Amino acid sequence: MGPVSGLTQVVCPHGTHADLMRSAYFSGNALVLIGRDGRVEQVGEVTGSEVFHEAAREAVQQTLFNPAIQNDEPVRVWASIPFTFKLK
Predict the structure, then answer these.
(1) Is the pLDDT of residue 8 over 70?
(2) Does residue 48 form part of some domain?
(3) Domain containing 29: what range?
(4) Among candidates 25, 8, 14, 35, which has minimal Cα distance to 86?
(5) What whole-number distance in Å separates Cα of residue 3 and Cα of residue 55?
């Protein structure tokens, strides 16, 4: 097995809680399983303020990634995705 590369975020649409999350400071990480097609297959642990965990889960489930590549083939991979929302 070679190293994994190529995982990049493509789309992160605004979910139903996006305005709420932008109106207060929040940062954390979501552990996600990203499939060979770049779609989130599973959301694991979410860190940061508990009040925003569900909103972060909803947002990351709608995010599309370029898949990770290993030996020139797309692979499933767990990744820690950082989130930061701040009032502007």
Answers:
(1) no
(2) yes
(3) 8-85
(4) 25
(5) 32
